[in-house]
Amino acid sequence: MVKSVATPAAAAESGRKRNRKRPDDALLSVTVGNSKMSAAEKERLKRYERGPGNKSKGVIKHRLKLNIKRSEKKMSSAAKSAAQAEVLLPSEPGVLEAEGEMERTARFSQRQIAQSVDLQTQRKAFEMKLDRFGLYRASYTANGRHLLLGGHKGHLAIVDWNPSSDSSSGPRITRELHVRETVRDLCFFRDHTMFAAAQHKNLYIYDGNGTELHCLRDHKPDVQRVGFLRYHWLLATVGSLGHLRYLDVSQGTNVADLHTRLGDCDCMRLNPWNALVHLGHRNGTVTMWTPNMSEACVKMLCHKGSVQAIAIDRSGRYMATSGRDGQLKLWDIRTYKPLHSYHTPRPATDIDISDRGMLAAVCGPSVQVFRECLAKRANGPYMTHLLPGCEAATTRFCPYEDVLGIGHSKGFCSMLVPGAGEPNFDSFEANPYETKKQRSEGEVVSLLEKLPPATIMLDPSKVNTVERNQKDRQKEAHASREARLAEANANKKVKKKTRGRSKAARKVAKKQSNIMDEKRLARQEELEKRRKRIKQRAGPSNEDDGYDPLSRFGGGD
After folding, report:
1. Nearest-angstrom CA–CA distance, 58 and 73
2. pLDDT tens-digit profile of 343-385?
3. What are the Cα distances from residue 314, in Å, to 112, 274, 319, 476?
4. Range of the domain at 281
5. Which of 114, 378, 387, 468 has CA atoms 20 to 30 A from the CA of 134?
6. Considering its fold, how many domains does the chain have in total?
7. CA angle, residues 533, 539, 544, in degrees to nearest 5
């Protein structure tokens, strides 16, 4: 057998042929490191890159330089893999579609929808009958795996409503307890291992097993609403006197205690984009608060009556409010202007916005879901659901699921809403399939990366930015302030000081002297008549007779 041996010239020629590019490849691809990516992949890669990173240039120590290079290589490889895998993610969720012009999706019942889906999805539509403990409030974890229920008469329960992929298993109550007093509101912390409950007298914190960890007696008077900021580890509460408090759960310290000065407040919602607290008040205003300011950042007059509920979308651009005037309004938070409004048959007691922009509102026993209603007005409801003989108290969309949870006077109901959940989730932020080890490691990482309260502001994109011309702006602000003060002093009128003449009684007497009423006129006429009578009694005066009183001092004629 004879083997062919390539000469150096032939090898060089073959190498040039292999490395030769076609004109089309040069136009449609760009080089990233040692690999080639298309222009679309290059655009997707920018969303996953972590910025400039730790450059190894200028590092003197050899081992440290190698470690930096290895970490940069791993991060670039992970960003590239994520950008390439984004093509495989579904971009559009499945929604209900009507076949004919006369058919409406709002007429589809939950029974018809459950018969048309698979067995695993059918398990997500269930109803829990709990008619002994009053109105129920519900709260989901960030990954949508666990559900927290709280009855008005003191019943608390943690439910693993989607435990496994086995179609035979249903919702499982992992822990329940009865606190024997009123429960006004409740919420999970970062995961299902801890939660807070606003009870009749105090605010309590429990663990996943139902053990009481803390009793916060300084949060008085009665706490009406509670909320948790995941990235700041702050527990926000608002009470009956309008006090807004921030508690750092990781350290156990009070961050801020703000007095709204707007009376009793029982409506609160957290903005997921900038972590601002939105409060709805009895005079129809909605205020936005941050722990860094003693006054509200924004005050908006939204309704003619009391504000019942507030909902904010995932991107932080739109806000929905419902009031006792029977209106459901949509607002653009970027411009603080109303977009459109809906008239509900009864005032909506609670509203919520899903990850995909669907709006759910509960009005007594009925639940209405609107689709594509944020930027533009919807012609009608996307889905409706009736709870006969019940009064709905709260409604919440489950994250990453096409499920809407409704807490009412007879328990809890979970209804299917196709297209409501986000199908693409980030496992580093919220993983519905996380294990116990992943949960513990994620909690440690979240504590290490906890954001300080000073980062809560209207525009969080300004964080970690430097204002280059800060000194020039300070000089301009100082000069403008001096000019305003000089103008105000020039236009200021000099007050004439009169000692003892500007007392309150004298000012009132001066004002009363200029008032001419019937009694005053009658009194003047009476005085004038009295003068005439006195004059008539005295007889004719000497001036009328022509007598000169100085004539007696003259001599002669």
Report:
1. 18
2. 888 899 999 999 999 999 999 899 999 999 999 999 889 999 9
3. 30, 10, 10, 38
4. 108-461
5. 114
6. 2
7. 115
